[in-house]
Specification:
mainly alpha, 2 domains, Cathepsin B, Chain A, 2 strands, globular, Papain-like_cys_pep_sf, Helix Hairpins, 292 residues
């Protein structure tokens, strides 16, 4: 038995055995970063060089067929951070997600099935769907130095539902999503209409609203939270703003919830997406996932 060896060399021009300050300067320019103090510059360059050597070693292993994925240094905005710095700044503490690891109860499954009776099977009947090729996956965002990944997981899911509704509208099939999410839209400038929404360039929904407003639902701003709790907040609040109308700041404003201060409610056209129901999907249950 012999592992296949993909003919893919290390093509990351910055991940080389010998890394120079010119390489580091090119990376800084690419990611619009700078280190003013010489001591900080030298410190970050040393970390960058270590990461470059790691990537170069890993990609060599990939070329030999010893691992299944390649790594990129030049594409990463975190290449001048240590592992510990990255964990501290961008990750969050372990959370109890047990609600999503138990089999759905019969009553919940029945409710899901009831709501999906009229479900459009355009995609769910297929054995394989790459949503990226369907134009409903929004661009990757950067959470910055804030443990807010739970907000991006939440908005990413809702953006996909909203974009799927836009796709169906363009196909003259249906004008709103069915199931657990309803698409809003309206005449207001910041409420992107389904009729012209381009999800490959759309800035999406407001993570900052969740950071500022979802604490009462057992979320903790930049210190972590859960998408399931965020969905409950959106359902109760009446909707979620767009990124355009409630820009991301990469920090928790504490007691300031602009969604509450600016408007009494978040009904259309003020919000783009509303949550009608929230369901936990059993871990590794592909049937539940398809139905959702």
């Amino acid at each position: 038995f012999q592992l296949s060896r993909p003919s893919m060399p290390n093509n990351d021009v910055l991940a080389t055995a010998v890394t120079t300050t010119n390489d580091f300067d090119a990376w800084l320019t690419r990611h619009s970063k700078s280190h003013v103090l010489d001591s900080e510059y030298q410190h970050r360059f040393a970390i960058f060089a270590q990461n470059a050597a790691l990537v170069q070693k890993h990609n060599h292993a990939f070329a030999q067929g010893w691992t299944h994925y390649a790594m990129s240094l030049e594409q990463s905005p975190f290449a001048d951070l240590t592992d510990e710095e990255f964990r501290t700044s961008y990750l969050m503490e372990w959370q109890n997600c047990s609600a999503t690891t138990h089999k759905s109860s019969g009553s919940v499954k029945s409710l899901v099935q009831q709501k999906m009776e009229n479900h459009d099977s355009t995609f769910s009947d297929k054995k394989f769907v790459d949503w990226r090729t369907k134009g409903i996956v929004t661009p990757v965002k950067n959470q910055g130095g804030c443990g807010s990944c739970w907000t991006f997981s939440t908005t990413g899911s809702l953006e996909a539902h909203h974009c799927l509704a836009a796709l169906k509208t363009k196909q003259n099939a249906v004008t709103t999503t069915r199931g657990s999410v309803r698409g809003g839209g309206g005449a207001q400038e910041d409420a992107e209409s389904l009729s012209y929404l381009d999800c490959t360039s759309w800035t999406g929904l407001a993570e900052q609203q969740l950071l500022d407003c979802a604490d009462p639902y057992d979320n903790h701003g930049c210190n972590g939270g859960l998408p399931s709790h965020a969905f409950e907040y959106i359902k109760a609040a009446g909707g979620l703003y767009t990124e355009k109308s409630y820009p991301y700041l990469a920090n928790s404003t504490g007691t300031t919830c602009m969604a509450t201060q600016q408007r009494k409610h978040l009904a259309p056209p003020h919000s783009v997406v509303q949550v009608a129901e929230v369901f936990n999907i059993t871990s590794r249950d592909e049937e539940d996932l398809v139905q959702a």
